[in-house]
Amino acid sequence: MPQAHLTLDPAFRVAPVNRRLFGSFVEHMGRCVYTGIYEPGHPAADDNGFRTDVLELTREMGVSVVRYPGGNFVSGYRWEDGVGPDRPTRLDLAWRQIETNAFGLNEFMTWTRAAGVEPMMAVNLGTRGLQEACDLLEYANHPSGTQWSDLRVKHGATDPYGIRLWCLGNEMDGPWQIGHKTAHEYGRLANETAKAMRLVDPGIELVLCGSSNSGMPTFGAWEATVLEHAYDAVDYLSLHNYYEENGDLPGFLCSAVDMDRYISAIVATADHIGAKLRRKKKINLSFDEWNVWNQSRFTGRERSPFQEAPELIEDTFTAADAVVVGDFLITLLRHADRVSIACQAQLANIIAPIRTEPGGPAWRQTIFHPFALTARHARGTVLRVEPSGPLLETERYGEAPALSAVATIDGSQVALFAVNRSPDQDLDLTARLLAAVRPLSASVIAAGDDPHRVEALPQPLTVQADGDRLTARLPAASWTMILAECESLRDQQ
Ligand code: AHR
């Protein structure tokens, strides 16, 4: 049986667990908003029209931050359409939808409070610019006594929202983006918009658009150029990436290797520009769109008729997808020193952990479970555990470690998250803790026998303890969470 080892030592501290790593994304796209989180008249809808079944699942998932209102949608969006009594119906050119604007900023803010999540707003830098971004910020965050803030008060929101996180547009490097720009055009616009927004509210945190994915022809160069323009004015640089199996299960199970390389490459690029500009300040990362998405099955919307809340990319996820999603979360935690925000895309129906039927039930997809367990149990401090073990040879990514792992410690509580990426071989794991350890529980999602099944409830896993060691057999293609207690850890933190 292949063996893998790791050491859990409080000296190998990465960073505190940042709750913002457990973010999600709500876009006006398909059925994410309409008949997803919002469906007046649904038997489970509250007085605001919010589906309480979806709200409950959102809370159960442990979602911390929700990015809104897009995505590609935001690049043609007029935020004023979604506030106040008059809501014009418009064409949404990004997804060829009919947008009724029944749901807008104030509904979203009320929803975030019901869900217990932090809002992360995106401004339109596609068809609009600096002025509209400042107007929106003034509407949202300025106390009162000005045209826009008084309008918010008139719309029933007496207190300012105090929204801290703001994205400067979405995927502006993508030719599909409405109002797509070159890196120089975007870098200048983002810099000027950021500076002006900070004059409206100095307390905000700003996210600059990085590449739409690591395969873009301008990847790397885009980041360098936009950072040269806006380094001083922003706090974070965004990353987006989606992964799919596409007939290659062994490669797909190693997708997090790519996410890991992508993050390291962007950290290096950001630090290079920081060094070039002689800045002490570090730009951290916002991985604000990530997930599994069977993109090759999506034929696009170019020929589709305009439609209200169309069924769009409602992918059904598998056990293998859940394992890969668990590995993405491990990877984000391993980079918690530089990745400050991460949003799984999206929350409901659109490539989502939560699915709904209009007028019917809401349910958890396979990928819901590793997210919910990681969000609940990753607490305190992230530790780098440097696993050793067999290597896998993949066509997509070359050599990849079979074991991916990270741990968190909080007082005497230990949570160890591990993925065995081998599609067909179990792995015997030994974790050494430097002091006596007691296992509390362990859960596993094993995809090996039937990777494409669409149910993947976590099952109990046997873990043995021997003094300072924990041992467990990690099934092929599996995600595992081991919870344990180690009293002496408390003194070492
Ligand atoms: O999440 C779906 C879409 O993927 C978003 O609108 C866009 O930002 C990305 O390309």
Automatic annotation (TrEMBL):
- Catalysed reactions listed for this entry: Hydrolysis of terminal non-reducing alpha-L-arabinofuranoside residues in alpha-L-arabinosides
Q: Which residues form the Alpha-L-arabinofuranosidase C-terminal domain?
A: 288-478
Q: Name one Pfam family in it.
A: ASD1_dom
Sorted keywords for this record are:
Carbohydrate metabolism, Glycosidase, Hydrolase
Recorded hits in SMART domains, A to Z, give: Alpha-L-AF_C
The entry lists its GO molecular-function terms as: alpha-L-arabinofuranosidase activity
Name the Enzyme Commission number(s) assigned to this protein. 3.2.1.55
Per its UniProt entry, which superkingdom is the organism in?
A: Bacteria
**Family, per entry:** Belongs to the glycosyl hydrolase 51 family.
| Binding partners and assembly | Homohexamer; trimer of dimers.
Q: Which PANTHER family match?
A: ALPHA-L-ARABINOFURANOSIDASE C, ALPHA-L-ARABINOFURANOSIDASE C-RELATED
Task: Supply the name of the protein.
Answer: non-reducing end alpha-L-arabinofuranosidase
